[in-house]
Amino acid sequence: MQIKATLDRIPGGMMVVPLLLAAILNTFAPDLLRIGNFTQALFVDGAGTLIALFLLCTGAQINFRNVGVSLGKGATLLTTKWIVGAAFGLLAYAFAGENGLWMGIAPIAIIAAMTNSNGGLYIAIVGQYGNKTDRAAYSLLALNDGPFFTMVALSIFGAMGFVDGMFSFQSFIAVLLPILVGMALGNLDSDMRDFLDKGSSMLIPFFAFALGMGIDFGKIIEGGLTGIILGLLTVFLTGTVSYFVFKAFKWNPIVGAAEGSTAGNAVATPAAIAAANASFASVADLATVQVAASTVTTAILLPLYIAFLVKRLEKKGVNLPGDFDGPSEKASYSAS
């Protein structure tokens, strides 16, 4: 039975198939694997640990002289996603009706969903289609976790005052540390670098499955059509804009598109904003279910969109990620 060969023939199969299988299982039989001990620890609760180990293995492949490239990519993705999300949220506020909604969507839901991204999904995608500097860029992308950048966006166009204390430097360091440990090991010992390199690809299907166990298709129904629309906007606006920004820098554009998602932690953002400013309380509950629906929608749709983009590039003769490797990270890219 050729399981690996079959998965390899499916674009993003090592990530998409385990994730969708787990999501189906979690939706219709959520308690099947929640039986405690090693089974639950690996297949349900293991995403954070497995991703942390993946980051450590990835960090070991980074040479100190290439750190600047990773930071540049991370800063570019972070800035692009925030600008798109904040700008679209501003338009939603401008055209909102008397009920404070635009096309039934709460503007704070738009900002919360679009300025945030699913780090696990990003890691899974670039683990298959990116290189080591693309993976290491995640250390900076951790900054968009939680409501901090949503608060910044709201403060910029005067919807509310800036709220302190919403960003935890400790949380940022906690994300960065596994990468730094891996970098130290890999740069101190080339044999350790080779040893840890094997873990990068091996871990992808396992943490993808664990991520899928956090997806409930019922959230799409609960959030309704507006939540699905928000998910579509997140994938096709933030993902596509980031794709072309990376293409303009002659970096791997698939890595840019990999940011077109909403993370599960963004579901808590509307409530956090309402707690900081009572004027948002009336739409906080609606915004919460819309962001939840966007989270599920993007988790399903983004891998499919990535598969489409990969096929498009392959038809143009682009080799992923090989055509974007190199000391300068400026591989020639002329395909339109």
Automatic annotation (TrEMBL):
The keyword DNA-binding does not apply. Keywords: Cell membrane, Membrane, Sugar transport, Symport, Transmembrane, Transmembrane helix, Transport. It comes from the Bacteria. The chain crosses the membrane at residues 12-29, 41-62, 74-95, 101-125, 137-163, 169-188, 200-221, 227-246, 290-310. GO terms for molecular function: 2-keto-3-deoxygluconate:proton symporter activity. GO terms for cellular component: membrane. InterPro entries: 2keto-3dGluconate_permease (IPR004684). Belongs to the KdgT transporter family. This is 2-keto-3-deoxygluconate permease.
